[in-house]
Each structure stands twice: as C-alpha cells, then as structure tokens.
Amino acid sequence: MLRHLTALVLLPAMALAGVSFETDVRPINRTAPGASYADMLARIMPAVVSIRTAEVIPQSVLNRYRGRIDPDKVLKDEKTGETLMPTGLGSGTIVHPDGYVITNRHVVVKQDRSVSETVIVQLQDRREFRAKVLGVDAGSDIAVLKIEGRNLPFARFADSEKARVGDVVFAIGNPLDAGMTVTSGIVSALGRSGKQGMGMAFEDFIQTDAAINPGNSGGPLIDFEGRLLGMNTAIKSGTGGNIGLGYSIPANLIVSVATDLANAGKVVRGLIGVQGEDLSLAEATKLNLGKNGAVRVSLISEGMPAAKAGLKVGDIIVALDGKPFENWNELRLAISRHKPGEVLTLNYIRDGRGSLTRVTVAERALDR
C-alpha cells in the first residue's frame, strides 16, 4: 500500500500591519534590596583567576610523535617558545596587589606530590602569567603562588569567625573550563571536619549549597559585601558534579597558612602530644558543662609537652586559654595554630575536680 508523501513548504512570512512589541529599556532598580549583586561582583571578579598546570614537552618527544599529538590540546609559551601539555585546571584569587595568589594545593601538585612544572595564571582581562609556587600545605590543601605584577586587582578577606548559617554567599571559578562563572547560595553549616572524608589533616570547612564543580577548586567563596570568606575546595557527590554539598576553607585559616607559605615557604604548627575524643552530651551534663564541648584525653605521647605538663589519659579538657570549644577537631586545630615555644593554658577535670596546667608548645612535623 502506497502512502502519499506531503512536501513541507515554507511560505514567506506575512507582515501583520499595525502590530508592534514594546521594550522597556530602563535598567532594573539595583538599589532595591536583593534586586542585584552585579555591582558587588563587578568589583571582586577581576581578582578571580583561572589556573592551569602543564608539563613541558621536549623537542625530541615532539619530533618523535609529530602528527600524533592533538594540536588543540597543547599550549605554546610565547616568551620561551616551549610547547606545553595541559595537565590540570583550577581557580584562584589574587589577595595582594603585588601578585600573591591563593589556590588549593591539589590544583598545583601532581599525583607524586611534586609541584607541577608549569603553572599558568590567567586574569579576566586575558593576561597570562607564569606563576612561581611559593609553598604548598598538605594539612590544609592551601597553596600560595606569585605572579610578577603590580597594582593588580585583589580581594580582601572577611573574618570567617563572624560567618553564620544562612548568610548569602557566592562561589566564583572556572567550572569544567566553561569560563568564569558565579553561583549563589547560603552558608549551610560551619565547622565541618573529618566526617566529610576530605582527607586533610586540618579541616574546618564552611559548607555551602552554592554550586561548586570540578574546576572551581581554589576559587573564592564571597560574602554579601564582596569579601573573601573562604576557598572552594571540595564537593560531596555520587555523580562527580554538584548536588548542593560544597566545602570551603574558611578565610581565617587561609590567612594563617598563606602568611607562613608566602614568607617562609612552609607552615609551622604547634603540637603538645595529646589525642582526644569528644565527650557525649550525657557525660558533659553530668559534669555540669552545659552545651560546651569537652574532650577526654585518649592518648598522651611520652616525653611530649602534654606529658611534661602532667596531663594524663582520662583527663577531660574543657577550655583552651580560657575559651571553650565545640569538639576535638576544633581543639586540635586551635593547638596547631600556636607556634613552637608559645605557652598555652588548658583547663581540665580529673576525678571530678577542676585543674589548670600550662603547656609549652612543640613543633609539629611538616605535613607533606
């Protein structure tokens, strides 16, 4: 049985006399609360950079594999003439007008833990710089780079201790090499640590639902006023893409680590030789500690400052330098921020009685 075929013919459009469409050319009222964040972002975004790592391809390798290397996948350094093979992509932020850039350690370090041979920083005005890696810190996943420039756009840090759950934040970076991108959300939680399985020795993450994807690593988490509140570092996902669980290193930790890396190339952390475990709420209640955190000493290292100061396994630490803390991770992080030779004060409970001891901090071995 034959079917009739009907040809589709496009007829010329007929003008509809008398019909017009209106356009309101006024810009939106950006002074209205919550109407736009464009002006704030326009100030901060020039300080956000894209970071690429690459390895130099020797001329002998080029000659041997000429025709088999995809030219679209290689870069050419115009100053040196070297041919470069891209190996990684991330983001970063200029935090000083003289060209100091912060990013994640995992952006600039290879699988063998060595620093990538070539690190290229691209600004939003398309200028590119070869960056020098001043230092990397495995404990916090922070790296500091230096590019040769003056009067560069830069971001100022916020005091991350003042952040609260519900604050509006913006994540900026180059996700999946799509180009510089802004996403928004809120601070979802504070003080996230090892439970997230990120693997850093010192974790104190800001959790956010602002979309973070591969390529965002090292880019800034910006607060409502355009200040650097954190550094986007990791996501938790079963798909490899954003599902609303993003983690950023808080600004105060970045400043502490980056200052050491920029000035000394390494981070010097304190150690007293103690390990602890969080006290349950029921146990804390029995000791009339209220809702403050408390830590039971589970291990004392022989010959270390804590042992010399008289601490014992089973002691319950309730304050550091007179200040309460939330949990063992927070206490451990606070101790690490003390420099060797400094003296800290620990309030603790032993056999139901409160005591106080002073501990001289030792130097922690360098995290690789």
Shape: globular
Query: Architecture of the largest domain in CATH?
Result: Beta Barrel
Q: N-to-C SSE series?
A: HEHEEEHEEEEEEEEEEHEEHEHEHEEE
Uncertain regions spanning at least 5 consecutive residues: 1-5
CATH class wording of the largest domain:
Mainly Beta
Query: CATH fold name of the largest domain, please?
Result: Thrombin, subunit H
Give me the secondary-structure category: alpha+beta
The fourth-level CATH homologous superfamily of the largest domain is Trypsin-like serine proteases
Helix content: 10-25%
Distinct helical segment count: 7
Number of strands: 21
Largest sheet: 8 strands, antiparallel
The N- to C-terminal Cα distance equals: 77 Å
Percent of sequence in beta strands: 25-35%
Question: How confident is the prediction overall: mean pLDDT?
Answer: 87
Radius of gyration, taken over Cα atoms and rounded to an integer in Å:
27 Å
Total domain modules: 3
Write the layout of secondary structure elements.
Elements: H1 38-44, E1 48-57, H2 59-65, E2 75-76, E3 83-96, E4 100-104, H3 105-108, E5 118-122, E6 128-130, E7 132-137, E8 142-146, E9 168-173, E10 181-192, E11 205-208, E12 220-223, E13 228-235, E14 246-250, H4 251-264, E15 270-271, E16 274-278, H5 281-286, E17 295-300, H6 305-308, E18 316-320, H7 328-336, E19 343-350, E20 353-360, E21 362-363
Antiparallel strand pairs: 1-3, 1-5, 2-3, 3-4, 4-8, 5-6, 7-8, 9-10, 9-12, 10-11, 11-14, 12-13, 13-14, 15-21, 16-17, 17-18, 18-19, 19-20
